């Protein structure tokens, strides 16, 4: 049975120590993936069996899955010949037995090792350059962006651009292919090479004319789909900025003065939510450092202990709103006016529920933003499109020098390299913006949220009628001043009317 074969393969890898092999029958031949793993694993496993520390950094099956040892009672272990007692199964054997019993394939040590090596990979030039794309435009940036001098400026910076450096490897490959074809054909045409060697060229360009249309469709779809993902991410963070402002405005309006500590706490946790979401979506974020900018020490530790940090911050904000003493006072208008217009007079309980519902809608929108960002991060464009586009371009660009030789000669070498750069650059743009969170200026958005919330709370959180000459007055103070001026004007008009009537009577 295949499951039993995999089980014995895993047992042979893990029970490499001689003292453990006494309970195991001779294993069957190992598959190729297990043989590769066995070349890495036995020295480390024997060292651990002897009580010595293994080599650091060696990725084996034990590092991929290491639950506590479980004794088998359903025949997963081998019975002793005399007493019928069963030895304890190693942790890895328990994992393999559990997956086999569930009908799943056990973890492959070779695959786990290769995945780990791939995860540590990446191209430093391309990955480091992503942080320099987190630009925020101002008026001067837009003037420079649409300036006619951009053509010469961009052409001058092409050689040292991050795009060229990121595509250096494939560009060198296509340059080498075109150079080799040019040298080969030159040697054949000049008679230096033996006459039996053929000239490498394609006189019929029909296949390239047919396939170029399909290649352009693939590139257009790739870039459009990637841009749609980038735009969705930017819209989500723009909505987060708006919702953060809105819920702060609502809290400033409806929280009573006695809930000033809750208002201050709300402003801190709104800013903390955006920063925790930013670190949640990036691999290079320092969450503790970001949280210390807005939260207190015990609040930072509480977030760090949570498994899902943004969810925890959002739940704290929800508890703050639920703990506030939302107004359940008199209606918005006197009873007679309420009778005239039912929209003005609301029952106290209804008004309080309406306020809470409006604030809860903002919290629900923030949760939807979290889900949108996680969907974009965890679900790429179907990998078949990326793979097929890359294979299509590699084959197409590799054969391109063969078709250019008859008409261009040695000029096919630079032409092939230029065409390769143009087409690979389009595909590279699509791949680079497919995961937008590492290139969007999320730090700037988080700073804007924190600054706006802090300004709202510092200016409009107190209503004492006094403010600094360099600081805008509170919104409620402006409203109260206007109401007072209107009342004074009305009183003056009434007094003037009474005085005018008395004089006429006399």
Q: Could you state the order of secondary-structure elements as H and E?
A: HHHHHHHHHHHHHHHHHHHHHH
Beta fraction: under 5%
Low-confidence segments: 1-121, 329-346
Please count the helical segments. 22
Q: Overall 3D geometry?
A: elongated
- The radius of gyration computed from the alpha-carbon positions, rounded to a whole number of angstroms, is 35 Å
Keywords: Cell membrane, Ion transport, Membrane, Transmembrane, Transmembrane helix, Transport
Membrane topology: Multi-pass membrane protein
InterPro entries: YneE/VCCN1/2-like
GO molecular function: chloride channel activity
Task: Give the key terms.
506 residues; mainly alpha; elongated; disordered N terminus; transmembrane; transport; transmembrane helix; YneE/VCCN1/2-like; chloride channel activity
